[in-house]
Design a protein that fits this description.
Elements: E1 7-10, H1 16-27, E2 31-36, H2 40-50, E3 58-61, H3 67-80, E4 86-89, H4 97-100, H5 111-134, E5 140-147, H6 149-152, H7 164-184, E6 188-195, H8 207-211, H9 214-223, H10 232-245, E7 253-256
Helix pairs in contact: 1-10, 3-5, 5-7
Length: 276
């Protein structure tokens, strides 16, 4: 799909991965809708980078867990951008066990609900309300951004980073991706990018990573075949591929984890055999 002058809704653009995606899509000539909710310092830099009197991009505050806010956002997209061809469904809030501890703690009373509502319900609301806009054109594409927490849960070295609710919600995103691909076909492609340890998201630059011991950080690296974490620009390029180049790809899950899921058992040399 040619992205020049197309319209894209990019969630989570206030920080990290979402910002890298927004920047790359803007470089492709797209007009962007960039909702934000909190993180005031990050929002200030978002407005500085993408806000302009020309109104080329739409920036507005919205709590995507609330249906009226999502409906208002889609109304503003129609009014200011005139339509929509792309959705990058990059919204989540996941508690890290190394930071939050067990759900039973007083400080975590709302954590389970927050993880499910932001990681799952918000994505669903955005899909339901953007679907009529996406159907208006001859071609559209959606990318759901998820986590390998869906596959590993709280096991192995990553157990310190993935909470139960967050893992469960991400497993459900897999189901959404396949169902939405059926609903959107043949004009709307829906694919999923499942992320491993990324800088600013379950990697360096996060409070959870800083709370890990040097030994725990090294265990995560060793468990990853490429022996490093990823970065937001690499994620943005993968999203660009799914939107621009993967025209015959829908309902698929692209795993971008540096080989974390394969890293528990390394390959071994072929034995010489015993047959004469």
């Amino acid at each position: 799909m040619n992205l020049k002058d197309k319209r894209a809704l990019v969630l989570g653009a206030a920080r990290g991965i979402g910002r890298a995606i927004a920047r790359l899509l803007a470089d492709q000539g797209m007009r962007l809708a960039l909702p934000w909710y909190d993180w005031p310092e990050s929002v200030a830099s978002l407005q500085e980078e993408f806000g302009s009197p020309s109104g080329r991009h739409l920036l507005m505050q919205a709590d995507l867990r609330q249906e009226p806010d999502v409906a208002d956002l889609c109304g503003r997209i129609t009014e200011q951008l005139g339509g929509l061809e792309v959705v990058v469904n990059n919204v989540e809030r996941g508690g890290m066990p190394i930071v939050h501890g067990d759900y039973s703690r007083k400080v975590n009373e709302q954590q389970w609900q927050l993880e499910l509502e932001s990681t799952l319900k918000a994505k669903w609301l955005v899909w339901r309300h953007t679907l009529p806009l996406l159907k208006q054109g001859p071609q559209a594409a959606v990318v759901n951004v998820s986590s390998i927490a869906a596959a590993v849960g709280r096991s192995g070295p990553a157990a310190m980073l993935f909470s139960d609710g967050y893992a469960a919600a991400n497993r459900a995103v897999n189901t959404f991706t396949e169902q939405w691909a059926r609903e959107g076909a043949p004009t709307i492609r829906v694919n999923e990018l499942m992320l491993g340890l990324i800088d600013s998201r379950h990697g360096p630059g996060t409070r959870g990573w800083q709370a890990l011991s040097n030994e725990q950080q090294e265990a995560l690296r060793v468990h990853t075949l490429l022996e490093r974490t990823g970065n937001p620009d690499e994620v943005a390029r993968a999203v660009l591929f799914l939107l621009r180049d993967a025209d015959y790809c829908t309902g698929a899950i692209l795993r971008m984890d540096g080989g974390y899921l394969l890293g528990g058992d390394k390959g071994v040399e072929m034995p010489p055999g015993v047959l004469e």
